[in-house]
Structures are given as structure tokens and as C-alpha cells.
Design a protein that fits this description.
The protein is of the alpha/beta class and about 400 residues long. The protein has helices at about 1-15, 125-135, 165-175, 195-205, 225-230, 260-270, 285-290, 315-325, 330-335, 340-345, and strands spanning about 20-35, 40-50, 50-55, 60-70, 75, 80-85, 115-125, 140-145, 180-185, 210-215, 235-240, 270-275, 360-375, 380-395, 395-400, 405. The two termini are about 40 Å apart. The structure holds zinc ion. The site of zinc ion has 7 residues, from loops.
Length: about 400
């Protein structure tokens, strides 16, 4: 009996010192791209207790589930910082508790997205409903830019200056720090700076959190140089940066086909340029000349809603594939969809595969074939590469597996 015990004890010691640690998930043989940690090579990723516990070559040991990622890319779970998820059934409420918004889990995991930031669908009057209905009910991590309009994105309400309350907005953000990462200005058509200035004031009052500007609608357009240089702070975010629509000044000069000099200056000053693709807020006529000069977005995001997802935008990976197609390299595309957006929203614990980080992981494939990627104007770019999501891990659990590459196959 004693002999058996000693033998068992020795075996236990050996297994611990060698490699027989048990993980919950072991992702084997994939090409890891983790821009924050400067990893860009074939490695294994081990997950236990919902966290990343090891990223190294040839990790031994056993796991409850093993993922065969050979020939695939393994990246941090993607972060989409411009989405619309305050879905509901209130008639004529648009993106605020209305039917133009989407339940996140239905559209995130199949695209490798593990975190979304709702871009101003709710305001201080409506945020608690959004939290109860969506944030608390979703497996996707849902954060929010709070609209400076108290009511949120309920159509005409967005023009109501009287409902843009700096103090109440900041109060709400301070109360829900865990979820509210900044403020949003959207769709305002008046020819004045009040909404921007109030959002920035709220950002300062809520602990220096950023604002995201969906700038547009005023005629003639307000000058974006003044926006970048005088009204915004370093760290604020200009979304829809490749838009070419009426009511908004473009970043690429139509005459010279060059990025305007002050846009480069703004980037140096610390203004972030976010894609926010949306229905009509991305045009190749802006993005391609910018790409030719090496001006790529700080963050890639979808502005997903029921309109954009069925039009040119479609989803996060299609949007990322467009940047690949116009010359942005894969590592930069991944960075703009993981660690960069995490930095912009000041949640740098997200968007990386550091040991100890919550295990949000995307396993991506680059499909080879003949693909047409078009924008809302009908301009098409042909490409032979398109990103596809093979598997998604959220908080240490497999939540999506396209081809059953996990063994055993269990989705939770
Ligand atoms: Zn939007």
C-alpha cells in the first residue's frame, strides 16, 4: 500500500514538473498574432479558469478541449467600438430600444468579435434600460459610449440641444464606470459646436474619458480642422473617418487626392480615426487614396445595424478584409481591431493575449478565392483573400466553432 502511495506521489510530482497540466482549452499550432505583445508566429495558447495561462511553442499537457488551429490565425477576440445594440420593440424608436439595433450575441461570435461598444444608442435617460435589456443579458462583453442626448438615438430627438446635459451625462458615466467608456455626438444638424463641447465637458467631468464624434449633417459643413485642433482633446475619436457624404468635410482632398495636411497634424496631436463603416459612411474614394499615402485607420469598426449589415458593410471581418484588400497588412488590421480600440476606450486589459487576461480569442482563416468587396456607391475592389471566423472563445468558453475544429466539440 505504502509503495503504491509513494509511486503515485512520484508520478504526480513528475507530471507537475513535466507537462501534464490540465487546461480547459488548448489551441494548438495556430499562427498567433497578438500585436500588443509583439507576437507574430506559430504558437500554442493555453486557457484555464477563463484566463490565458500560457502562450508558447509546443505546450504540453492535457486539456478538456483541444483546438486544431494549424493553418489558421489566432488573435485576441476582436473589439468593435462602433455598434448599435439597444434593440427593442418600441415603435419608431430607431436605435434606442427600437428595431434598427441588433442583439449582440447573434452577430458577434460568428465574426470573432468578443467585445462591442455601443456607439451612443442610449443616453443618460435610457442607459439603465439598455443595461438591463442588453448588457446584462449578453454573453458578448457590451460597453457603451453614452449619447450626449439624454434620450439617445431616437431619431429627431438627436436635434434637441435642451436634452444635451453635461452634468447628468457625467453622473451616469461615473455611476456605471464599468460599462460607459465615453460619450458620443451623432447626427446633429445645427451649425454650432455645442453638442461637441458638451460631450467633451462631460468626458472631462467623468474622469477624462473619450468622446466619439459622428460628425455630420450641418450645411455648410463645420470645418473638421477646427474640430480636431480646437474642440477635441488628444484621445478623442473621429468615427466614419472615410465617409464621403454631404454635410461633412472629407479627410482626403478631392482635388489633390491627398490626405489634408491638418489631418496628419491631428493624428500627431492624438486624435483617433475610426472606421465606423455603417450604411453610407465608408467610401473607397476616400479610403484608397488615404491608404496609398499610408494613412490607415486607428481602429476598424462596423457601425452595425439592420441597414448596414445587409448592405455593403456586412460584418466586422468583411470590413477588415477591405483594408487588407487596399494594402493594410494583416498585423496592422488585427491591431486596429484588438489592442488599438482597447487603448482608445482606455480598457487596455482587453484586446491582447497576455497571461492573466480574460480568455477572449478569435481563430481566423484567410479564405482564398475570388471575392468582390464593394462600398455603398457601388465601387468594387476585387480580392483573392477574405477573413473568415473559424472559432471564438469568450471568457474561456468556446462560443462559436464553424467547422468543429475543437475536440470534443462543445459550444457554451
Ligand atoms: Zn453609428
Amino acid at each position: 500500500m505504502k509503495k503504491i502511495f509513494v509511486f503515485a506521489f512520484m508520478a504526480l510530482c513528475l507530471s507537475n514538473s513535466a507537462s501534464a497540466q490540465t487546461y480547459s482549452i488548448l489551441i494548438k499550432g495556430g499562427h498567433v498574432i497578438d500585436p500588443k505583445n509583439n507576437i507574430d508566429e506559430v504558437m500554442d495558447v493555453a486557457i484555464a479558469d477563463g484566463k490565458i495561462v500560457k502562450v508558447a511553442k509546443n505546450i504540453g499537457g492535457t486539456a478538456k478541449q483541444t483546438v486544431d488551429a494549424k493553418g489558421l490565425y489566432v488573435t485576441p477576440g476582436l473589439i468593435d467600438i462602433h455598434s448599435h445594440n439597444f434593440f427593442g420593440t418600441a415603435p419608431d424608436h430607431q436605435y434606442e430600444n427600437g428595431n434598427l439595433a441588433l442583439p449582440p450575441d447573434g452577430f458577434t461570435f460568428r465574426n470573432g468579435v468578443t467585445t462591442v461598444v455601443d456607439a451612443g444608442s442610449s443616453g443618460w435617460r435610457t442607459f439603465t434600460t439598455f443595461k438591463e435589456q442588453t448588457i446584462d443579458q449578453s454573453q458578448t462583453r457590451v460597453l457603451a459610449f453614452l449619447n450626449i442626448v439624454g434620450e439617445g438615438m431616437r431619431g429627431g430627438y438627436e436635434q434637441n440641444l435642451n436634452d444635451m446635459d453635461t452634468r447628468m451625462s457625467a453622473l451616469m458615466a461615473n455611476r456605471f464606470k464599468k460599462y460607459i467608456v465615453g460619450f458620443k455626438v451623432a447626427h446633429y444638424e445645427g451649425h454650432d459646436w455645442s453638442p461637441v463641447d458638451r460631450a467633451v465637458a462631460a468626458g472631462k467631468a467623468a474622469g477624462d474619458i473619450p468622446v466619439m464624434i459622428d460628425f455630420g449633417g450641418s450645411q455648410p459643413p463645420l470645418p473638421i480642422e477646427e474640430l480636431f485642433m480646437q474642440h477635441l482633446r488628444p484621445g478623442d475619436i473621429f468615427t466614419h473617418c472615410f465617409a464621403q457624404i454631404n454635410g461633412r468635410e472629407y479627410i482626403v482632398d478631392q482635388q489633390t487626392q491627398k490626405v489634408k495636411p491638418f489631418v496628419w497634424e491631428a493624428r500627431k496631436r492624438g486624435i483617433y480615426f475610426d472606421v465606423g463603416y455603417g450604411g453610407i459612411s465608408f467610401a473607397f474614394s476616400q479610403a484608397i487614396p488615404a491608404a496609398k499615402e499610408g494613412f490607415f485607420p486607428s481602429s476598424i469598426s462596423t457601425d452595425i445595424h439592420t441597414g448596414s449589415m445587409n448592405n455593403a458593410m456586412k460584418d466586422m471581418l468583411t470590413t477588415m478584409s477591405k483594408f487588407l484588400a487596399i494594402g493594410m497588412d494583416l498585423k496592422s488590421v488585427i491591431k486596429a481591431s484588438t489592442s488599438n480600440p482597447a487603448m482608445e476606450i482606455k480598457h487596455e486589459e482587453l484586446g491582447n493575449l497576455s497571461v492573466g487576461a480574460e480568455a477572449d480569442v478569435a481563430v481566423l482563416n484567410i479564405r482564398k478565392g475570388k471575392f468582390g468587396l464593394f462600398d455603398y456607391t457601388g465601387r468594387k475592389v476585387e480580392t483573392d483573400k477574405k477573413l473568415e471566423c473559424e472559432l471564438t472563445v469568450r471568457a474561456g468558453k468556446i462560443v462559436y466553432d464553424l467547422n468543429g475544429i475543437a475536440n470534443p466539440i462543445t459550444i457554451r
